[in-house]
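Bumping my old thread because nobody answered last time. Still need a sequence for this structure:
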């Protein structure tokens, strides 16, 4: 008989828990062959439960149950049963203490959920449902408990023993062992539990809160990384101050700890008072970390810290509400990053991810609303939709209410629901209450999947001097949702006159936010002297696809005149897109003068924010061009983009050289301020464009920069330029000397892998297979797997989509192998195959065949089963 397939669970089936846990006492005895976990739970029936006589049902996965007691008495074998992933205890009193003892094997845990070993240390990852791999528990976020945790381990191997809250006791035991006891005064769901035991270096700092309390900050890392802590701690202090200033949120414990681990499925985790980070998302020093790396770390440290309020103090009722904490926290970290640097550049970066990857997700087989209605495996829903689109939804609420009302709404939300597990409806209700704005229609953003399309047309009548804008909105069908109701869309616009000046709008300002709520709406502007140029969707005020019939001249005009920085950049992107799309459809390989002239103007512009200029110099990516195509011809897109780059580089050689030289940095110490970063980006962008054309002088500059670099941005910038250049020998030499220099540093080796797997010059399939044989590669380490296999399938598109289907077959092989080790990573890695609808019939057939092979290959994890089966519908 066929084994039962994993079944979906539904939001509509939510019921309050039958039991509550008032107190959780845990005792860990850590050994080299495994760990014993004793748990004592103070349980009582939930007065709000709809089943007053329910048995106690606890979640548990891969636990060896060694004893079970109620109020100190061993439970009879007939009274309890373990079936699948549940322990059921029947005929329990209304209030009692349950003690269980289990044995687990962290050393054999390769899925990196629950308690596991990363290099020499023990660590945990409990979100979403990892706690059930540690002990039997009611593993759901609306069960919130106080925790007291005792850890016992060998003192020389694990001198540092950490858990949530405050350390209340510590001491020495027999046989070279020692112990520590931690108590967390805040009630929390078990997904926020954490434990770390290891031989770690600790760097300390302090933060004084606005009310004058001293908080001790500690960063724990392996000893070899002791000199990579500064930036994480600086970022943490900035985040703490910012959350006080902007949201009035103070930290609530005496100590805040960050631990860096090398083996981690995601970026980082907001465990109460004990954040655990993927090494690549927190460790930094100038010699090994790029400017992008620095900025990413600052943002992720902030994100995890902000969760202390948006996620921990107020948490999610159930996992369908995941965006309650994630969308809101991503919005908060985006505001923070904008405040720390350039808000326009931050917006450009966020919208780039959204339009390239989230829109693709919204249009793919796993498409789901910001608040999903069902899922098979929750780990599959830590998505760009829940995170990034969820943040866009919060951003739109901010736009609709204005900063002041939004702050009142967030204050109300935090005070009303402090210590509770709530829903996205509760969040929106607070925003409605303080503003008096009806968000009923707006809430469709949480319920309906898919990216809305807004088609804009306009008409100017010189006789009446009226200008009419018409908006038509629609939303494509998505799985399980064929018909969509209109969204409430805040749509920001401006109008430019012939000289490039903003025209005053009816609201008295130069930008106005329209409320689009109907399938079709028009707006007429009076007394407009001449045909204006519309600046549409300023700041990307809503996550929609915008359609308007731009002329190339209008785009070039907006590129230099729009007062909205985001739209200036976007006009340049649109111009380049139209040019490349024309080349693709008409077969021509000439780059029109208008694009060259527009780029010339950008390069020579030393007035505008140089960080924005650097962004404007980069052509839209292949991924985005694919996203925009109905049927993407990957090889053709690659070819046309390469040619466009080379021709721009050739035509603008002198300007690029001047730009490179203008941005040479003085020999002063490396700094990560906005201007220095912009200069390095510009210089490296210019270098790369020049090298692509085979320019010998630029080759020498690249080699010199590579040799002399005192920071990773310059060194890898030069290396990247060489990798993308036609100079094969120099490229090979530089790659190998780079590895020799950095082989002992994992974070740099990951960058070295990515650089090679991400492009066809160094990452054809044979080379990828060779990288996987490299001594530094380890398929059990998610960062290494992502940097070789993930980067190959997501960025090296001509090789992944090779005509013979070899890229697809390769990915399928890797996914099958990984699923047995780490289902979360396997199910993420398979994503590129699920996007088969984008490609030609032949490609579609090959991709589906690869998916079929995965599906029929044996027992899949629920993670991989969900993604693969939904992709083949
Ligand atoms: N809550 C974390 C992300 C995270 C989610 C799941 C994890 O394991 C499955 C780990 C981390 C955040 O938003 O940063
Ligand atoms: Zn988060």
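Sorry it took so long. Here it is:
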């Amino acid at each position: 008989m066929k084994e039962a397939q994993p079944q979906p669970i539904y939001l509509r089936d939510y019921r309050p828990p039958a039991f509550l846990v008032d107190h959780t006492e845990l005792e860990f005895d850590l050994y080299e062959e495994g760990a014993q976990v004793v748990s004592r739970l103070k349980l009582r029936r939930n007065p709000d439960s709809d089943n007053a006589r329910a048995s106690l049902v606890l979640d548990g996965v891969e636990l060896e149950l060694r004893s079970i007691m109620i109020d100190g008495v061993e439970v009879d074998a007939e009274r309890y049963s373990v079936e699948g992933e549940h322990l059921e205890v029947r005929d329990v009193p209304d209030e009692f203490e349950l003690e269980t003892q289990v044995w687990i094997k962290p050393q054999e845990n390769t899925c990196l959920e629950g308690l596991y070993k990363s290099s020499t240390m023990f660590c945990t990852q409990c979100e979403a449902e990892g706690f059930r791999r540690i002990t039997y528990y009611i593993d759901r976020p609306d069960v919130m408990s106080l925790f007291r945790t005792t850890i016992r381990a060998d003192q020389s191997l694990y001198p540092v023993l950490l858990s949530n809250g405050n350390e209340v006791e510590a001491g020495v035991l027999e046989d070279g062992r020692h112990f520590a006891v931690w108590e967390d005064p805040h009630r929390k769901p078990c997904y926020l539990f954490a434990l770390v035991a290891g031989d770690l270096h600790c760097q300390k700092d302090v933060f004084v809160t606005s009310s004058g309390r001293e908080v001790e900050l500690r960063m724990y890392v392996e000893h070899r990384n002791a000199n990579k802590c500064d930036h994480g701690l600086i970022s943490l202090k900035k985040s703490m101050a910012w959350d006080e200033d902007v949201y009035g949120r103070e930290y609530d414990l005496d100590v805040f700890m960050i631990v860096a681990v090398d083996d981690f499925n995601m970026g980082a985790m907001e465990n109460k008072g004990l954040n655990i980070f993927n090494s690549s998302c927190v460790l930094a020093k100038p010699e090994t970390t790029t400017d992008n790396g620095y900025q990413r770390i600052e943002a992720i440290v902030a994100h995890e810290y902000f969760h202390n309020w948006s996620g921990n103090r107020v948490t999610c009722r159930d996992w369908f509400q995941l965006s309650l904490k994630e969308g809101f926290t991503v919005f908060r970290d985006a505001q923070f990053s904008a405040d720390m640097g350039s808000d326009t550049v931050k917006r450009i970066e966020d919208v780039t991810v959204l339009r390239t990857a989230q829109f693709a997700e919204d249009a793919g087989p796993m498409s789901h609303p910001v608040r999903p209605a069902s899922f098979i495996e929750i780990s599959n829903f830590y998505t760009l939709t829940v995170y990034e689109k969820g943040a866009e939804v919060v951003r739109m609420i901010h736009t609709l209410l204005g900063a002041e009302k939004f702050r009142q709404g967030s204050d109300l939300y935090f005070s009303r629901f402090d210590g509770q597990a709530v829903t996205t409806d509760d969040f929106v209700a607070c925003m409605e209450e303080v503003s008096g704005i009806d968000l009923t229609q707006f809430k469709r953003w949480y319920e309906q999947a898919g990216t809305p399309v807004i088609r804009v047309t306009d008409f100017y009548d010189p006789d009446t001097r009226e200008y009419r804008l018409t908006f038509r909105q629609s939303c494509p069908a998505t799985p399980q949702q064929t018909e969509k109701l209109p969204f409430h869309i805040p749509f920001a616009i401006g109008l430019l006159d012939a000289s490039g000046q903003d025209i005053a709008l009816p609201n008295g300002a130069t930008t106005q936010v329209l409320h689009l709520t109907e399938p079709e709406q028009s707006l007429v502007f009076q007394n407009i002297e001449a045909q204006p140029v519309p600046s549409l969707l300023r700041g990307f005020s809503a996550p929609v696809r915008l359609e308007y019939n731009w002329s190339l001249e209008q785009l070039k005009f907006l590129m230099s005149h729009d007062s909205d920085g985001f739209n200036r950049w976007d006009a340049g992107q649109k111009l380049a897109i139209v040019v490349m799309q024309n080349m693709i459809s008409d077969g021509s390989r000439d780059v029109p003068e208008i694009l060259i002239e527009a780029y010339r103007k950008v390069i020579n512009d030393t007035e505008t924010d140089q960080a924005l200029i650097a962004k404007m110099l980069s052509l839209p990516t292949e991924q985005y061009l694919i996203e925009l195509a109905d049927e993407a011809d990957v090889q053709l897109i690659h070819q046309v983009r390469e040619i466009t780059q080379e021709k721009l580089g050739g035509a603008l050689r002198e300007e690029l050289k001047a730009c490179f030289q203008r941005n040479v940095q003085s020999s002063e110490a490396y700094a990560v301020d906005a201007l220095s970063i912009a200069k390095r980006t510009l210089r490296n962008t210019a270098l790369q464009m020049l090298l692509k054309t085979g320019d010998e002088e630029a080759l020498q500059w690249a080699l010199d920069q590579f040799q002399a670099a005192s920071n990773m941005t310059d060194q890898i910038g030069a290396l990247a330029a060489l990798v993308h250049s036609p100079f094969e020998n120099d490229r090979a030499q530089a790659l190998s000397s780079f590895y020799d220099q950095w082989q002992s540093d994992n974070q740099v080796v990951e960058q070295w892998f990515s650089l090679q797997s991400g492009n066809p010059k160094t990452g054809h399939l044979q080379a990828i297979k060779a990288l996987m044989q490299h001594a530094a590669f380890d398929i059990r380490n998610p960062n290494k797997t992502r940097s070789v296999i993930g980067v190959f399938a997501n960025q090296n598109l001509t090789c992944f989509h090779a005509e013979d289907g070899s890229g697809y077959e390769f990915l399928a092989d890797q996914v099958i192998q990984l699923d047995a080790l780490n289902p979360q990573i396997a199910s993420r890695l398979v994503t590129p195959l699920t996007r088969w609808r984008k490609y030609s019939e032949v490609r579609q057939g090959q991709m589906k065949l690869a998916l079929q092979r995965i599906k029929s290959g044996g027992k899949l994890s629920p993670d991989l089963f969900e993604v693969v089966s939904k992709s083949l519908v």
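The mean pLDDT is 98. Let me know if any region looks off to you.
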